[in-house]
Amino acid sequence: MRHTERELAQVLHTGPFHLALRTALSVRGLPLHRVQHHLAHRGVKLGVTSLSYWQQGVRRPRRPESLRAVRALEDVLALPDDSLLRLLRGDGAGGDGAGGDGERPAARSYRSLLESSGAVERLLAAMESPVDGGLHTVDHQERVRIGARRELAGRTSLHVVRAHRDGVDRYLAIHRGDPGCDPSRIAVRAGENCRTGRVRWDGEAGVLVAELLFDTRLRAGETYLFGYGFEDGTGGASGEYVRGFTFGGGQYVLQVGFDEAALPVRCRRFEQVSAGAARAARRDLTLTGRHRTVHVVEEGVRPGLVGIDWDWD
Fold it and tell me: Residue 281 in contact with residue 269, Cβ under 8 Å?
């Protein structure tokens, strides 16, 4: 399957390395023996077998001579300088042996992102699911509704993900309510291209994890679009909405809408490297008069937290 320049630009941003290399080879239409020929003209000796292993994710370049070959590959494939090497640095551990967990985008743990992460990890373990579900975000559009009692009434998501390993057929959506919420009363709404599987919650932490089952099993590199949401309204007054990203890359759009009976006096965008870190990159947001919403657009998100908070008085 031939890929497009747009797909190449996206995967060069999100990784992983082997998928970016495979996509670049497809877009440029170069068979491996021609790539080897071009590398040789640049004084780089690299076997076709090694190239094949790299693009399949079976092996990853690590030795100095292999990294020099990757830099030459960027030239051969007319890619931006450091675009492939950056993905190798972000992918973490691995090497010229088996790829393993290193064949995914740079990640942060849930524990570093959420103060309630212990509860999240327990719920994931109870569902026999690893924290890394084999997916990373390409595009995520999220709409949050704040009700007349200043409560988090609900939220909906339209989510596009890409698999970075074969066989992925589900997504685990995590909902964290405001203080006083009752996760047992929160409804999960599966939208297009998915259905609800298991649902687990921790009442003390105010966290719910919902399994969303896809209509197909994905292969590494494939994308999938699905929609889902949560109907909450069980907590007290809400003062913020925060989204945590364990993987970097992709685009995120967050819109928060307010009931006309409960309008904030000030809204701000912020980001954090972890739940306990200081909030940075603050920016005031203007509430629209007619629709009573504010939004942020994050292109190329980094592992960490992005959110909007607001003042009622």
Answer: yes
